[in-house]
Amino acid sequence: xxxxxxxxxxxxxxxxxxxxxxxxxxxxxxxxxxxxxxxxxxxxxxxxxxxxxxxxxxxxxxxxxxxxxxxxxxxxxxxxxxxxxxxxxxxxxxxxxxxxxxxxxxxxxxxxxxxxxxxxxxxxxxxxxxxxxxxxxxxxxxxxxxxxxxxxxxxxxxxxxxxxxxxxxxxxxxxxxxxxxxxxxxxxxxxxxxxxxxxxxxxxxxxxxxxxxxxxxxxxx
Length: 221
Description:
Blueprint: H1 3-7, H2 18-33, H3 40-47, H4 51-57, H5 61-86, H6 91-106, H7 109-121, H8 126-153, H9 161-183, H10 193-208
């Protein structure tokens, strides 16, 4: 949202700007109160609108949560998938670029709030749990699996990479950032965040890479 729009009185803003405001307000309240305790009235108050306005865009709190996930997480996957499709270099290089993007996204405190909410509360909401698994977890895995398959085909990665990489890398990125946000001020001996990311990625890659440092070209030549 531009500075001019953000500074304008709410009743003068474009109607299409309002759902974005509601999603941001919902994420903030979810992070403070948790999903179960949050009410749509609280979200409306945070966004500076009436509760009725929330219902103009979202049928329920579940619907609003889905919008938060779609706008804050799923939207980040689309450019990552496009990057993977256009990448012509080694699979390890592509994987490194992707993990850097994931790390940057998860370093955002909004994303930290969302990941904590997902870990602590989604087991209580089966429909939302399935939604998040299918739209976020599985989509991440498909992307990482495609990179692993590429690496196996070029001789860069061992065949086990197709099983390990899609599951272990997202979990490590999320967990390392969670620990950083929760205990970073107490852990004086921890490496700098980006250094920790690179150490983690280096260890994972060393476990799946073959001794072949030169990827095979298409056609096996």
